[in-house]
Amino acid sequence: MIFYDFAGRTAFVTGAGSGMGADTARAFAHAGAAVALVDQEQGALDALTAELTGQGHRVLPVLADITDEDQVAAAVRHTVDMFGSLDMAFNNAGIMHAPVCTADETADAFDQVTAVNLRGVWASMKHELAQMQAQGSGTIVNCSSLGGLVGGAGRASYHAAKHGVLGLTKSAALEYAPLGIRVNAICPGTIDTPMVERMISGGELDLDDALAAIPMARLGRGEEIAAAVLWLASSASSYVTGVALPVDGAYTAQ
């Protein structure tokens, strides 16, 4: 991975306990940032905190449910109280349910998906932006999906929420560009994460079919997502805001 020097800066990562969130939190820490690890799974937080502090990194574990705006606001305040600023954020936390046709999906299932994948991103952005505006600087990277760029049979609510993340991203980018605050999104393809492993083992995703649909003919890796996030969070992308960056092995280029 390309090395960035984030010494003296603070990163805030939601869904940090596993998968792309954990890999990105590691990358921020290895690049010198203090990192707030936000997740609702205590065990996952404890494990990553122990790993990173054992390597000499500055991290703050924050147990929070991003569907609760008060908890998000408290997480941002705690981060700033501990580290003095909030310079970079990766709003990554997300969920996915088993495929279901649109007419068969329950309202509860729809609400659960959108509460995390859309409202949770909105709540996170709201309080991150308020802090960044007070500072006069900052960068935010939201995690959409290839599902934010295309449709997907059986996953209407997930794709709707991920499309919504791009609307939030572009609108906030326009609002805050004059203030020197950048807001971008990444759109990961099928990445080798615990969630994808569960989908494969549970029969929701056929690995051979998935690979056949990806021009690069392999799953993505968490560290490849982290590399894209760190680039968007760094000064290397200083004139980039409001973009939806596919990181998908050319899936959406077809």
From TrEMBL:
- UniProt signal peptide: none
Instruction: Quote the Gene3D superfamilies the UniProt record gives.
Output: NAD(P)-binding Rossmann-like Domain (3.40.50.720)
Which keywords belong to this entry? Oxidoreductase
| Family to which the UniProt record says this protein belongs | Belongs to the short-chain dehydrogenases/reductases (SDR) family.
Q: Does the keyword section mention Oxidoreductase?
A: yes
Q: Which InterPro entries match?
A: NAD(P)-bd_dom_sf, SDR_fam
The source's superkingdom equals: Bacteria
Entry-linked NCBIfam families: PRK07231.1 (NF005559)
Protein name (record): Oxidoreductase
Q: GO molecular function, one example?
A: oxidoreductase activity
Name any one Pfam family assigned in the record.
adh_short_C2
